Amino acid sequence: MRLLEERILKDGVVKPGNILKVDSFLNHQMDIPFINELGKEFKRLFADKPINKILTIEASGIGIACIAAQYFNCPVVFAKKAQSVNLDGDMYTTKVESFTHKKVYDVILAKRYLTPEDHVLIIDDFLANGCALLGLIDIVKKSGATIEGAGIVIEKGFQEGGQRIRDLGIHLESLAIIDSMTDNSVIFRS
Ligand code: 5GP
User: What's the predicted TM-score (pTM) here?
Assistant: First the structure.
């Protein structure tokens, strides 16, 4: 998506460890008219799917998912990162390894908010190694709901996540795919 690529080139900052910081418009301060355009684009890309729920993971996916949800006219449910899991049977649980914090944490979702009748679009800000997305996919599978697709704002195409998700046969749409990045250049997949 041209608009997003231009914004990354203008305001993105590449940090050591293959981290792209987009704090000025997406991950800390949020440019709402801009994110609104991302929401519209997700709707255009998944227009033919019977999506009735958007699933994301806290924290940074939530704002993006909420804006997109207005175009899908559906609720958003977000998986929570938990310190310890209380296995009382009311929750779906999975484990996710954090790319940015390098630790494994439990992720939970109340069973009543995801059921076999649901047709789910998963949304997140970044796709790197795919752990966050695979965790969300695991939760949807446990619930018996249907995964209609996954929408990612920025995929780092030089990491393995995109391939792993596409190999599962999941309809994955990334609004920008970065093929390589250094301190002074970001190259997008054309
Ligand atoms: P993965 O689970 O695919 O390895 O990493 C995805 C998650 O890690 C995203 O939810 C995102 O929060 C975080 N992440 C991964 N790479 C980056 C990055 O380059 N920049 C930022 N801001 N977050 C990232």
Answer: 0.96
Mean pLDDT of 156-175: 98
Q: How many whole angstroms separate alpha carbon 72 and alpha carbon 150?
A: 14
pLDDT surpasses 80 at 89: no
Q: DSSP string covering 91-118, please?
A: EEEEEEE-TTT--EEEEEEEGGGS-TT-
Residue 58 has pLDDT above 70, yes or no: yes
Instruction: Say how many Å lie between the CA of residue 11 and the centre of ligand 1.
Output: 17
d(CA 150, CA 172): 5
pLDDT band at residue 31 using 50, 70 and 90 as cut-offs? very high
**CA distance readout (Å), 52 to 38, 119, 146:** 19, 5, 10
Mutate which of 20, 23, 100 for ligand 1 pocket (most atoms within 8 A of beta carbon)? 100
Whole-number Å distance, alpha carbon 39 to ligand 1 midpoint, is: 19
Which is the closest atom of ligand 1 to the Cα of 15?
19
For ligand 1, atom 22: residue with the closest CA = 21
For residue 126, the CA-to-ligand 1 centroid distance in Å is 5
Q: Can you tell me the mean pLDDT for 64-85?
A: 93
Q: Would the CB of 25 count as within 6 Å of ligand 1? A: no
Q: Are 79 and 107 in contact (CB under 8 A)?
A: yes
